[in-house]
Specification:
This protein is of the alpha/beta class. The protein is 36% helix and 23% strand. InterPro entries: FAD-bd (IPR002938), FAD/NAD-bd_sf (IPR036188), TetX_monooxygenase (IPR043683).
Length: 371
């Protein structure tokens, strides 16, 4: 019995790890040519009850704590005029409820926990039929259970549901400042050790300290059309022009916010934010299931990676408990996953609603300091 996992992201690798621990054959098919073929993005905060629980079940929690940054939990929340609304600095002895970790480091931790032959690089999935996987290079492979862990644009998802990601009204641009402590010590001190968040009416700026000394800057525009980038006047192929246009779009914001944008290097990455319907389900189908963003794509507000890791681990545990009855294992996994991720999806939608409101900063302050 062979389990084929399409997608070598966090959820797919967590599943492969659990199956390896339980001597169940699994192969991860990843379209990228190697682990270093593409940048993996910024920091993730792993929650004690979900992402950290998954790593504990996978026997990797100690290795996780060795690479995690508890100080990354620090938070500064500001108004566009520079007024500081909230500053939370993590004490040295504070419990690591949501420590930050570099996504690439976490992925490497999972990859290093697997035998090299488990991940087949350079295998871009095209479609599946009659127990056979077809890849874009014309090769094929057999499977008994297919797990779609292939993200927002999953090619496995259509085997189970017609649901497709829909635009949220948010468009974002990712920028960054490398080696910030040396190149811009004043901005490094302003951002601090964790997250620096400025919320305005229809726009936001967030800056996130990474473990490699880079500050990633995300500029978001809410209540915008799916094709907003085409009309925004932001030339993504002209970094200097893009920075100038973005500064123009943030006219009236504090000099500190403008300085962050001006200090960024030539990396300009436009991102159109999409989600799947909250509470998406499908009839359990023999031979195929989904996890992570393929199953429950949410706004990027802290739940996605945690849910994906836990999906992979809990599916692995279900398969280990029913090694001779994959359909029963999948039903058990999907039942729990639907309930858990629906709740997470509702919370993510609530935060997204706050971000799109005219008084986003005050509502977010109330969210962090209820009562």
């Amino acid at each position: 019995m062979v389990i084929a996992i399409v997608g070598g992201g966090l959820g797919g690798l967590a599943l492969a790890r659990l199956l390896h621990m339980n001597d169940i054959d699994a192969v991860v098919y990843e379209r990228e040519s190697s682990r270093d073929a593409r940048g993996q993005g910024g920091m993730l905060d792993l929650h004690a009850g979900t992402g950290q629980r998954a790593l504990r079940e996978a026997g990797l929690i100690d290795r996780f704590h060795a690479i995690a940054r508890p100080e990354g939990q620090d938070l500064r929340l500001l108004e566009p005029d520079g007024t500081l609304l909230l500053q939370e600095d993590t004490p040295e002895d504070a419990p690591s409820l949501r420590p930050e970790v570099d996504r690439a480091d976490l992925r490497n931790l999972l990859l290093d926990s697997l035998p090299e032959h488990v991940v087949r690089w350079g295998h871009a999935f095209e479609h599946a039929d009659d127990g056979l996987l077809h890849f874009t290079d014309g090769t094929t492979a057999t499977y008994d259970l297919l797990v779609g862990a292939d993200g927002a644009d999953s090619r496995v998802r259509p085997l189970l549901t017609d649901a497709r990601p829909a635009h949220t009204g948010q468009n974002a641009v990712e920028l960054g400042i490398p080696d910030v402590d040396r190149t811009h010590p004043d901005l490094a001190a302003m951002v601090g050790r964790g997250n620096y968040w400025v919320l305005g009416d229809g726009q936001s700026l967030s800056a996130q300290r990474n473990g490699d000394g880079r500050v990633r800057v995300y500029l978001s525009f809410y209540n915008t059309a799916e094709d907003w980038f085409a009309t925004s006047g932001i030339p993504s192929d002209d970094p200097a022009g893009a920075r100038a246009r973005l500064i123009d779009l943030f006219t009236g914001w504090s000099s500190q916010a403008i300085a962050l944008i001006a200090a960024c290097d030539d990396m300009v990455v436009p991102r159109s934010i999409t989600t799947l319907p909250v509470g998406l389900t499908w009839p359990s189908t023999t031979g195929v299931t989904l996890l992570g963003d393929a199953a429950h794509l949410m706004p990027p507000v802290g739940q996605g990676a945690n849910m994906a890791l836990l999906d992979g681990v809990l599916l692995g545990l279900a398969l280990a408990a029913h090694p001779d009855d994959f359909p029963a294992a999948v039903k058990e996994y999907e039942r729990e996953m639907f309930d858990r991720t629906s709740a997470a999806g509702r919370q993510s939608a609530r935060i997204q609603e706050i971000l799109t409101s005219p008084d986003a900063s005050q509502k977010m302050l109330a969210f962090f300091q209820p009562g």
